[in-house]
Design goal:
Radius of gyration: 20 Å
Number of domains: 1
Largest sheet: none
Distance between the termini: 59 Å
Shape: globular
Structural class: mainly alpha
Number of strands: 0
Mean pLDDT: 90
Number of helices: 11
Length: 288
Amino acid sequence: MRAQEAAMLITPIDLFFVVLGLAVMTIGFLRRRSVPAPEPAPPASRLELFLTGLALIPVAVGPNVLVVALTPGMPEMPELTRWVLLPSILLLGLVWMIAARLRLERLSNRIWTGIWVGFGCTAALDVFRLISFSLGLLPGNMPRMFGVLILDQMALGPTTLSDIVGNLYHSWVSVCFVLTYTVIGGRLRWWVGLIWGLIVEVGMMTTPPMVVAMDTGYFGLKLGKGLLNGVFLGSLVPHISYGIALGLLAERYTRHAGSVLALFRDAFFRGKPTRPFRGFSLGIGPRR
């Protein structure tokens, strides 16, 4: 079976990842049914700021290796996976272990929260993505395509191994988006997660995985139905669900308020006379 034809199937592996993600989300909500008050921010240091910057490197790498691989003239996915993606994941694990070892609680909490919330909330997206796909609104089952790209078996088509690899990469991209949210933003109100989900949707609709690989054009406009096309609407609803879920869980489990900008200020200017820093009005800081 050709890869393009096989991408039109939903597999038990897809459903397994959805059930697993929903279980993670359910446990998260049951453990914290309400949002606790943020904890006092620990003292900032330049070391923590440096490690935060290192943590953001793998976060940027995860989604963008696919964008690069699908750009004509650039290295393909197997090489990028071996030499860029996997080392970046190891780098994040190293940063997390160092942060935990040095008791940098703010950073270690944000990394851990981003990892498990990102993995779980993939299911909030995939429930509606698979429904949209089964209704014919989306042109392919993206994780299946990811797997054959990573293992370089487009001619052979998907296998059980490639489906597992594809879903793992799909989940890792979700983790990277939530890590961006938690590491940069800190504790935010749940509705900021919805906004972030919509930003991710815009990114998906304007980059090569959808525009080139799925041949839909920007926002699915190549289908000739304006914005009311199946590709855009079939992707919009899943990302709304994803944004709400990550916002609700991240607000419950990210322990400290304050963005990376506040961390930078405290690391370099603590104890020096400065103008008050008010951050930005997206819910940073304790509730009043």
